[in-house]
Design brief:
The complex is a heterodimer of chains A (427) and B (430). With 427 residues, chain A is of the alpha/beta class. In chain A, β9, α12 and β10 form a beta-alpha-beta unit. In chain A, α3 packs parallel to α7 and α11 crosses α12. Chain B is of the alpha/beta class and 430 residues long. The longest helix of chain B is centred in the first third of the chain and has 17 residues. Chain B starts with 9 loop residues before the first strand and ends with a strand. The chains are: A alpha/beta (427), B alpha/beta (430). Chains A and B meet through α4, α5, α6, α7 and β5 of A and α4, α6, α7, β5 and α8 of B.
Chain lengths: 427, 430
């Protein structure tokens, strides 16, 4: 393949429960750490799920963000800003004289929830003597208790625009929402835009939603969250037996994508490239996940686009979110696509980082790049919990040294969308 | 992954819409071509005391009922925006004969929408079970007031997923949330999916229903809405010197995009071609557009470049034209930058003068009216244009539709926060 049809990764950025950047996160993953802890910040006693991989204590202080802008930024905004800045710094496009309009930006954004505290004063001011809401009082003035910038914080694209402003990005862009496939589509759109020459460089990835009462409620209603039992460390168990369900996480992942010829011309370093992708959509009738058929179709399409065969894949970074239906469909799809092949191993980041929703695919692509660069695969779980018996050869216990050159990365939504990409070493 | 050396041509084989002016494309276009306004006093909710009390509402009876059992099962998950979108897609899919396409894995959905807003009733219900720190979840559940489906209505991707199910689309599925440019970006991104060979056909467009208290109040608080008007119908006055904010509306627009060869092979009627798409970010300020129209210019120039057309080949521009002081000023500047000396002779008009601003639906609706105008040789007017603004000195097709042929046009959408999109649309030519 020619250098002008290869999309390489010239920058990576991460911010999540295990670290404020790529290096911190990688070290923690190799040590077998998990960011999953008891949820802080609000009372979870009446929710079934009590653990998540949150990023506690994150504030705009020290990030050089103007207080005016910080007023409408929440945790997800800071995470996206941090990951984007790291990827951008590593790719250093501006030092190479690249103009804002030559740079694109594509991101999947998690849901942005109303904070009841922001709205409470307006409702309290509008209460009738009997405690019910006096609508007339609300409509004719109570609403003015809401901070005038509150509407901005509620717009799905504002965080994205703040990052574009911060980095001076003016080229092609789109915001996708809100699950893992949104983050993956952002990456594949980033690839498309550099392949077609519409941008010289594209930042692509995503950010999770903030763990909040509403995000937990949504997860429970969808029937995908793990119910806390008090036993164990609260992690989800990708493809594991026993308690099924996923655990939410907070984080962002961003990659800088560029044509290999462009990276070479300006002397930018890279070790990996994205060589194929596939998308499909077909929800299960009886559960919040895609069908195995759809996942297999996305995987097949990605392999075909990369001009590979299944046996060429060394590692699958699975979606592996620990849910009953999601794991079952994905395992069936992997078994079908990789039928007759046993040389590959499987990794999932969800037990360590939680389910990062729209951030998950880009985070996994960044981790895949680190795996290829370092020749080592972190453990998906701290111990061999009977995982190997399930036939997927999941890396558990301790890191595994392996010369990994070709990785398939999967993701899916609860509504039936699924995507796969192929990440390859350039060496 | 490699670049397709011969870019697939993407054609439009179906269109559908529901707007404050009508239940479908023909009704909307016919009224708009007569300069009729779809704006009136809001009746959806109590606006007493608010500084803006007008909007463009869609009549409930225009929305297609969920009549069959399969669709009915999905109704409870469906926001008002999605109900409008379903109506628009039914029209577009019927026109395109989309159900005849056999390989449903090659049919996708790309939708710009933002989910439904929380209602005041919902907020007050929720607050009864929250003391500022702790939730009384058992109490909330026991009360039976709070439907779990509320959470689905708020998720932007719920609408995309339901459309995929209703119209049996098993290919690429995109949920786009880029504010006022979401509809145009959804069409642009769908075009890319087809060009990349990832789908043969895509349902693309946008829908929005923010005419409820919490949706509306956000724009009141940031003072984006028109507050000085003598009648509802004259409030939206894009490019007029006395413009003072936009008018909020609801609606949906849907197009069926298709690979040219695929459309030909099944004998579909080709309505037009999506020639190009450009997108950009202002990277300036969250609350202001770039004073030199940098982002708008990049998007328009990008669409032209993508279409491989020179500015002089464009016969009409369907403006974003919101009727805010800033947008219209900056958009006029962008026009001058793109078209140079010819800017004053390129007709540019704003559908929002009649339809109001339908946010995520606007880009899709305006793409369709542009195409319909090509077929009918009609350029829709900018109504309420009374007082010339010396800083906006272009040919805004004031007050009356103009009968003139045009074959290629641009349609602008500039989103809050600084995301911009521009579609280049043309009649189909071999």
């Amino acid at each position: 393949m020619k250098a002008d049809t290869q999309v390489v990764i010239t920058g990576t950025g991460l911010a999540c429960s295990l670290g404020k950047d790529t290096a911190e996160t990688w070290d923690a993953l190799l040590s077998g750490k998990t960011g999953v802890k008891p949820i802080s910040g609000f009372d979870v006693a009446d929710f079934g799920s009590h653990e998540a991989a949150q990023v506690p204590g994150l504030t705009p202080d020290g990030l050089g963000i103007h207080p005016r802008d910080a007023r409408i930024m929440d945790i997800h905004s800071l995470l996206l800003m941090m990951a984007s800045r790291e990827a951008f710094r590593k790719a250093h496009p501006v030092h190479s004289g690249m103009l804002g309009e030559e740079m694109g930006f594509f991101a999947g954004m998690g849901m942005i929830d109303y904070k009841i505290d922001d709205l409470m004063p307006s409702v309290l001011k509008s209460l009738a003597p009997d405690g019910s809401i006096d609508y007339h009082a609300f409509y004719s003035g109570g609403y003015q208790e809401i901070h005038p910038l509150w509407p901005l914080a509620m717009l799905n694209n504002i965080t994205f625009c703040q990052v574009a402003i911060d980095l001076g990005i003016r080229g092609e862009n789109t915001v996708f929402c809100p699950h893992a496939e949104g983050g993956m589509i952002a990456v594949t759109e980033g690839c498309g835009t550099v392949l077609e020459g519409r941008s010289r460089l594209a930042l692509a990835g995503g950010v999770s939603e903030k763990v909040s009462p509403l995000s937990l409620a949504r997860g429970h209603l969808a029937g995908v969250l793990k119910i806390s039992t008090g036993d164990g460390d609260g992690r989800c168990r990708p493809f594991g037996e026993g308690d099924k369900g996923t655990v939410l996480g907070e984080g962002a992942g961003i990659v800088a994508l560029e044509l290999r010829s462009s990276a070479d011309a300006r002397g930018a370093a890279y070790s990996t490239m994205l060589t194929g992708y596939g998308h499909a959509c077909e929800p299960l009738d009886d559960g919040p996940a895609p069908t195995a058929r759809a996942i297999a179709r996305a995987m097949d399409r990605a392999i075909e686009a990369a001009s590979l065969r299944a046996e060429n894949i060394d590692l699958i970074i699975a979606h592996g979110d620990g849910t009953l239906h999601g794991d079952k469909s994905e395992k069936e799809a992997i078994t079908q696509v990789f039928s007759g092949h046993s040389d590959f191993v499987v990794f999932s980041s969800k037990a360590a980082l939680g389910h990062l929703l729209a951030a998950a695919p880009a985070v996994d692509i960044v981790l895949g790049t680190l795996i290829i660069e370092n020749g080592i695969i972190p453990p998906a779980m701290p111990e061999d919990a009977g995982q190997r018996g399930l036939g997927l050869n999941l890396v558990t216990g301790s890191p595994v040294r392996k010369n990994v050159r070709k990785i398939m990365i999967n993701c899916q939504s609860y509504e039936g969308q699924c995507s796969s990409v192929i990440l390859e070493s350039v060496a | 992954m490699s670049l397709n050396t011969t870019k697939r041509r993407v054609v439009i084989t179906g269109t559908g819409m529901v707007t404050p002016l009508g239940r479908n494309c023909a009704e909307t276009f016919d009224k708009a071509s007569k300069g009729i306004s779809g704006i009136d006093y809001i009746t959806n909710f109590d606006t007493t005391g608010l500084p803006c009390r007008i909007g463009g509402q869609v009549k409930d009876e225009w929305l297609e009922p969920f009549d069959d059992r399969a669709a009915g099962r999905l109704e409870r998950y469906s926001s008002r925006g999605l109900r409008m979108m379903r109506t628009a897609v039914l029209e577009a899919a019927a026109q395109a004969g989309l159900s005849e396409v056999k390989d449903r894995e090659r049919v996708g959905v790309s939708l710009g929408s933002h989910g439904e807003n929380v209602s005041v009733a919902e907020m007050s219900d929720l607050l009864r079970f929250y003391d500022g720190r702790k939730w009384d979840i058992p109490g909330l559940i026991k009360s039976g007031h709070y439907s779990p489906f509320q959470l689905y209505l708020r998720k932007p991707d719920t609408a995309t997923s339901i459309l995929s199910m209703l119209f049996d689309c098993r290919g690429t599925s995109l949920s786009i949330v880029s504010a006022c440019s979401a509809g145009a970006q959804a069409i642009g991104e769908a075009c890319r999916v087809i060009q990349d060979g990832k789908a043969d056909a895509m349902i693309a467009g946008g829908c929005e229903s923010t005419l409820n208290f919490m949706g509306f109040i956000g724009f009141v608080l940031i003072k984006a809405l028109s507050e000085k008007y003598t009648t509802p119908q004259t409030a939206s006055r894009p490019f007029d010197r006395k413009r003072n904010g936009f008018v909020m509306s609801e609606g949906a627009g849907a197009v069926i995009l298709e690979d040219l060869e695929h459309a030909r092979s099944r004998g579909a009627v080709i309505l037009g071609e999506l020639l190009g798409y450009g997108a950009s970010a202002d990277a300036y300020r969250i609350t202001d557009t770039h004073p030199k129209a940098e982002g708008a210019f990049i998007a328009m120039a990008g669409a032209l470049e993508d279409a491989d057309l020179a500015p002089e080949e464009i016969g009409y521009v369907n403006a974003h034209g919101t009727s805010t002081t800033q947008n219209d000023l900056v958009e006029s500047l962008a026009m001058r930058r793109v078209f140079g000396e010819r800017a004053k002779s390129v007709p540019v008009s704003s559908n929002k003068s009649m339809l109001g601003h339908t946010i995520a639906a606007a880009g899709a609706i305006e793409c369709i009216t542009t195409l319909m105008g090509m077929h009918r040789s009609i350029i829709l007017p900018t109504i309420n244009y009374e007082f010339r603004d010396p800083k906006c000195d272009l040919d805004f097709v004031p007050n009356e539709a103009r009968h003139m042929p045009y074959r290629r046009a641009l349609s602008n959408s500039f989103g809050f926060g600084g995301q911009n999109a521009c579609l280049c649309i043309g009649t189909f030519e071999e």
